[in-house]
Amino acid sequence: MTHGRRVPDPFRWLEAPDSPATQAWLAEREPEFAEAVRRWPLRGWLRSEIRGLVAADLWSPPQWRGGTAFATLRTAGAEHPRLLALTGGGRRVLFDPAAFDPSGGTTLDAWEASPDGRHVAVQTSSGGVERGELRVLDTATGRTVEAPIGGVRYSHVAWLPGTGSPAFYYVRRDGADGRRGVWLHRISADADVLVHACAAPRTVPGVRVRRGRWLIVTESHGTGHRNDLWLADLDAGPAEAPPLLPVQVGADAENDADIGPDGLLYIRTTWGAPRRRVCAADPAAPGPEHWREVVPESADATLDGFAPAGAPGDTRVVTAHTRLGLSTLNVYGGSHSLPLPLPGEGMITGLHAHDDGSVSLSYADVATQLVVLTWRPGEHRPNRWPPAAPGAARTTAPVPRQVLTGVSDDGTPIPVTVFSRAGFDRPGPTILHGYGGFGRPRQFGFSATVLAWLNAGGRYAVAHVRGGGDAGRAWHRQGSGRGKVRAVRDLIASGDALVGAGVCARTQLCLSGGSAGGLLVLAAAAQRPDLCAAVIASAPLADMARFELLGLGAMWTREFGTAADPDDFAALMAYSPYHAALAAPTGDGPAVLLTGFHGDTRTDAAHPRKMCAALRAGGRAPDRALLRYEHGVGHGPRSVSRAIDLAADAHAFAAAWTGLAPRQAP
């Protein structure tokens, strides 16, 4: 009993991943999935098409340190990106995950070069667990200079300036004594020093050093889009005890900061601006009472990235705004703003200012592989980097799109963006993607999987539901916590809008979502079994009564609520897909493909295991309640071949159940 309510959980035993019973149950699912794959006509074509579309050189934005450019490059046909050092027109491999681990199970999760370019810190993890080691390499030799640091997970690394003993700050989220915080590491020192400990539980710290002098420390409180921010002048105190000044602490706001060429502190904030704005302040008096607005809040777009660039006497703020999945790039200076042209209609990521006054960013759209662009003050447009690299040119012609509007049950208009090469004159097989979580906006970058689906004659739609960040902080909050069910109803309204506009018939509609989006699509199909023909739920949340006890669920109570609170619990149970399947079994509902990853430390693979068991217990036939389960991978990056196989299987399933026929593939 929970809060006076009986909560059935007949498949709790599937939460034990390595028990003999769970392993035996998983073994029974393997031949069922293999048999289903053999009956999906487009599987082979999709795999070949996706592999061809990803066959391009993909660069990361560069870091310039001590006359050397550092960047990762995944060459066409390679399984993993490699970290390179580029000098004088040549390039050297510093770290190759495939050489480090020939099995292909190790990924390069993060890296940061030292200010003088003599060292680079790289973080790796294996088996998909996203918790691994931080090791320091000598740039000249590529060799590890000391024993690796363990217990890190996507750690920020902030090198100290100067030419003395190399040192850096880093984040250890599950350190030796369980404290999360910022640590100082000196190469070859006996022990690291804790310089800032997080006072509250379920808090994630972050750290940066900017302009060779300023230490920026943040604490994010769970996933509630609220954080605290401090600033320290490293010239004013020892590195072991930096004199941290509060910029904003305890406020219900999300802040990000950088130091401009003019020496001012620039803060991107939701304080007084749900869609974010940029303010400037003197680092000696960084509190909000001293902030001066330099980039105002947009009325219809969300400020996703900013970078103060240029020269001390001519500092500009470069911004990336997003509206309904599409980015714009602008330069603000004084009271004026100047738009910078992009290669097409797509998304910007990784906007970053460099010490030489330039800015780098990544750009991609539905038909364009990710490319790196750089901009310098005085230039009228960003330029490709590296200049001589063939890179990833436009792979196909732009894909036509249109925006429809669904109306949710409370009257809220929900935008739905639809892409189609086949035109919109008659209904056709359609995938409707939804996420609706953590305030993250849906952006239209490159996906070889989506492009292959479009090239085969299918349509691809994205529902900009509440809970995401598509219309700012208020949009997120309306679809989070006890209002999460609104995101579910928004997705249902989006599916109805597609059918009503003639984009597809219900028998041609497949819902698709991963992680929090997997929860969304499963909940929508549970509430409206007639909504669609099929559902793809990749690494989903499903058991919302116990999500806090599985994976990183305890960090997500700001997003979903907590089962410890009676009102939160009632809201969770109103849409929990696992319990809906147990309470109202429908053997004739849509076909469901669940994917699970044994190494997943975010959304524990117990969720898809239990969901599959509940659907099967409710009478769903084996080919209508499939589990695709992988060992040796997790929620994050994986080798290219494994990613292609996963994408081909999922979309071949969608094609089989929506009627996307082989003859429609070019």
List keywords for this structure.
single chain, 666 residues, alpha+beta, Rossmann fold, Methylamine Dehydrogenase, Chain H, five-stranded antiparallel beta sheet, 12 helices, 37 strands, 19% helix, globular
Mind explaining what this structure looks like?
Helix 2 (43-53) crosses helix 12 (640-658). Among the domains are: 12-51 and 396-664, 3-Layer(aba) Sandwich (Rossmann fold); 265-394, Methylamine Dehydrogenase, Chain H, CATH 2.130.10. Strand 36 (591-597), helix 11 (606-617) and strand 37 form a beta-alpha-beta unit. The protein is globular and about 70 Å long. It contains 12 helices and 37 strands. By secondary structure, it is an alpha+beta fold.
Summarize the structure.
The chain has 666 residues and is of the alpha+beta class. Helix content is 19%, strand content 33%. The chain is globular.
Describe the secondary-structure layout.
Elements: H1 20-38, H2 43-53, E1 58-59, E2 63-65, E3 68-74, E4 82-87, E5 90-95, H3 97-100, E6 106-113, E7 119-126, E8 132-138, E9 149-152, E10 157-159, E11 167-172, E12 181-186, E13 193-197, E14 203-210, E15 214-221, E16 227-233, E17 245-248, E18 255-259, E19 265-269, E20 277-281, E21 292-295, E22 302-311, E23 314-323, E24 326-333, E25 336-340, E26 347-353, E27 359-365, E28 368-375, E29 383-385, E30 401-407, E31 413-420, E32 430-433, H4 448-455, E33 459-463, H5 473-478, H6 484-500, E34 509-514, H7 516-527, E35 534-538, H8 557-560, H9 566-573, H10 577-583, E36 591-597, H11 606-617, E37 625-630, H12 640-658
Parallel strand pairs: 32-33, 32-34, 34-35, 35-36, 36-37
Antiparallel strand pairs: 1-3, 2-3, 3-4, 4-5, 6-7, 7-8, 8-9, 10-11, 11-12, 12-13, 14-15, 15-16, 16-17, 18-19, 19-20, 20-21, 22-23, 23-24, 24-25, 26-27, 27-28, 28-29, 30-31, 31-33
